């Protein structure tokens, strides 16, 4: 069975991240979406909220599961669960350079794990969680962010930021 891991903080899950998950679901027999926590980041949504949003957005994908990373290096977590690939989405040249560096470091830690890079469609390449959060505030922001978030995530996002209209 070909198993891959797609990791991120997904705060929140965007349509760009969901595209990578759907693509990976078609590419691999099993895809584990691994929720990482970067100690350098302040999260809008809790770990359990992010897991719930990912699960509800991926309910149509029977070969996708969601797990928190915990304290392991991603490549070691991947090996523990039997995954041989890391799936990564790249939006631009900066992402590519970063992912190549990460691939090299991951390979130094655990050469048994390979990295597959995928390029989302043009209309999704500028979308990131921080980009979506930057849209909050001006009148009409709720409709604007709706274009970038899966429906279940949009509902939770609106609930989290409901007091920010017209700032």
Automatic annotation (TrEMBL):
Residues binding substrate: 9, 41, 74, 88
GO biological process, one term: coenzyme A biosynthetic process
Keyword annotations from UniProtKB, A to Z: ATP-binding, Coenzyme A biosynthesis, Cytoplasm, Magnesium, Nucleotide-binding, Nucleotidyltransferase, Transferase
Gene3D superfamilies with a match to the protein in the record: HUPs
GO MF: ATP binding; pantetheine-phosphate adenylyltransferase activity
Domain Cytidyltransferase-like: from-to ranges: 5-131
Binding site for ATP: 9-10, 89-91, 99, 124-130
GO CC term, one of those recorded: cytoplasm
Localization (cell): Cytoplasm
Catalytic activity: (R)-4'-phosphopantetheine + ATP + H(+) = 3'-dephospho-CoA + diphosphate
EC annotation from Swiss-Prot or TrEMBL: 2.7.7.3
UniProt cross-references to InterPro entries, sorted A to Z: Cyt_trans-like, PPAT, Rossmann-like_a/b/a_fold
Cofactor requirements of the protein: Mg(2+)
This protein's pathway: Cofactor biosynthesis; coenzyme A biosynthesis; CoA from (R)-pantothenate: step 4/5
One Pfam family cited in the UniProt record for this chain: CTP_transf_like
Oligomeric form and interacting partners: Homohexamer.
PANTHER family (UniProt xref): PHOSPHOPANTETHEINE ADENYLYLTRANSFERASE
Protein family membership: Belongs to the bacterial CoaD family.
Function: Reversibly transfers an adenylyl group from ATP to 4'-phosphopantetheine, yielding dephospho-CoA (dPCoA) and pyrophosphate.
Name this polypeptide is given: Phosphopantetheine adenylyltransferase
Organism name: Candidatus Yanofskybacteria bacterium RIFCSPHIGHO2_01_FULL_41_53
Gene: coaD
